[in-house]
């Protein structure tokens, strides 16, 4: 979310986040950490299968744009914690692309199932996402709190989290060949 926020260089008070009423509370927590105003965090209603309704998402985005706000982040879910509902990624991704909104797909709960060929359909539309995560500790018998996080354009993530004070600059760090993950340097 911070990478999405930083690439816009917009007034943080105008930025809006969208996710479904069934999404994990970590999305709201991330919005708070990123400095998004609580009134700019919009929960989108779901259908009878607990999936985010793309039509309602589109309507809310249009209302927000008309109000002078800036939609910047949508969090869709592949397997909600409460019901394993899978949001319609293709439709949500198309909306995100039309409005130039960062699409994150939270596959923490059920995304791992796509390792099986018969469940790969759950990722239809994932190619439209800017970022994606899933948790191997939930289904892959790894130790607790193992999360895999992918981002389409790592430069945006690295730039958003970079701090390069003078005392850390050296030939290796400024060559562009070494990325010090401790400081997320793009130098």
TrEMBL record:
The modification N6-(pyridoxal phosphate)lysine is found at residue 138. GO terms for biological process: carboxylic acid metabolic process. InterPro entries: Aromatic_deC, PyrdxlP-dep_de-COase, PyrdxlP-dep_Trfase, PyrdxlP-dep_Trfase_major, Pyridoxal-P_BS. Keywords: Decarboxylase, Lyase, Pyridoxal phosphate. Pfam families: Pyridoxal_deC (PF00282). Its cofactor is pyridoxal 5'-phosphate. GO terms for cellular component: cytoplasm. GO terms for molecular function: aromatic-L-amino-acid decarboxylase activity; pyridoxal phosphate binding. Gene3D superfamilies: Type I PLP-dependent aspartate aminotransferase-like (Major domain). The keyword Isomerase does not apply. It comes from the Bacteria. PANTHER family: GROUP II PYRIDOXAL-5-PHOSPHATE DECARBOXYLASE, MIP05841P. This is Aromatic-L-amino-acid decarboxylase. It comes from Nostoc commune NIES-4072.
